[in-house]
Amino acid sequence: MEQMTVNLGQNSYNISFHTDFNGLCAVLEEIGAPKKLLVVTDTNVLGLYADEVIGLLKRAGYDAVCYAFAAGEENKDMQSVLGICSACMEHKMDRSSMILALGGGVVGDMAGFAAAIYMRGIRYVQIPTTLLSQSDSSVGGKTGVDFRGAKNIIGAFLQPKHVYMNVSALKTLPKREFISGMGEVIKHGIIRDEVFFEYLSENTRDVKAMKPETLIYMCRNNCRIKANVVELDEKESGVRAHLNFGHTIGHAIESAVNFSRTHGECVGLGMIAASYIAEQRGMISGEELERIIDLLDSYGFDTRAELPDFDKIIEIMRSDKKSVSGTLKFVLPVHIGEVKSVCDVRDEEILNALEFISM
Ligand SMILES: NC(=O)c1ccc[n+]([C@@H]2O[C@H](COP(=O)([O-])OP(=O)(O)OC[C@H]3O[C@@H](n4cnc5c(N)ncnc54)[C@H](O)[C@@H]3O)[C@@H](O)[C@H]2O)c1
Ligand SMILES: [Zn+2]
Hints:
alpha/beta, Rossmann fold, two-stranded antiparallel ribbon
């Protein structure tokens, strides 16, 4: 079994890479999972993979039941988390019991949050099934829900006990979700690893064709990059901010277009805008900017878009929970494979960058 460790002292855990779910019970045994398990999923993944996973667990002697909430970000709320907690009570889960989060980022964030608060904290395992969750949300221990229109405003840090990646689960993912997830994958290349960036350029066809060995390689490199950043900064006070590359403008666009574009699509535009600001400052060359745009284009990202009023986008950026007293923090590339955080980007530079990415 291929696996890597996320080194966080007492909170350390392994991420393993697979092409099916058959290795799950061996992993659970290795981490000393209890007999009582609650598999948390959503109504889409329920029909795709829950039977198989529950079947495997039961045959191995686990007392496993499944709880599914309605799929979609609009259900990422306290109500759903309380639903998970109720299922824990009905299944008579105690402090030694464990939650398995089977699904995308919404499932992982909510199952993780329920694990953080049920009986003041029980263990959980991530089994991510979207590219976004395999490349980003399942690693790092951030859990939570949206509240009163604010994304992830209530939550907790709780690291999982294991992350089980089955890349074959991506085969049923809608194409748009797959592309959206590629946004975070490409981001990891730009912020930390030029060789990985090149790999993504040279293997576009195999990635899109979802060749298992290509997906495993991609997933492993992704997780290594995300894990390295999390290891240096578990609670996001320093370098973890680098993961925000493309997100300052990306988040604002996402909200300005009322979420009609996916997160990844907006991050793609945000990465181009941030790279343009860096290029205008002489931090990266025009050729590097082109390489970034070309890579996104080759994976099917829009590299330009119709944008609403620029002032509105800037206003949203200032009200983002990651801006400190209205000061905008940007992550800009120094070259492909390295970024730095800056706080002195002027409105004029942002306006020019928005112009650059607009139709
Ligand atoms: N915790 C973190 O560090 C972190 C990081 C990034 C994003 N997030 C969160 O992740 C969430 C987005 O994650 P997401 O994009 O995975 O969303 P999601 O969980 O809503 O999944 C997207 C859609 O794909 C469906 N789906 C899941 N797996 C599938 C499969 N294998 N085949 C077919 N359909 C499948 C889901 O039911 C859903 O409809 C957001 O809420 C975001 O805030 C968290
Ligand atoms: Zn993101």
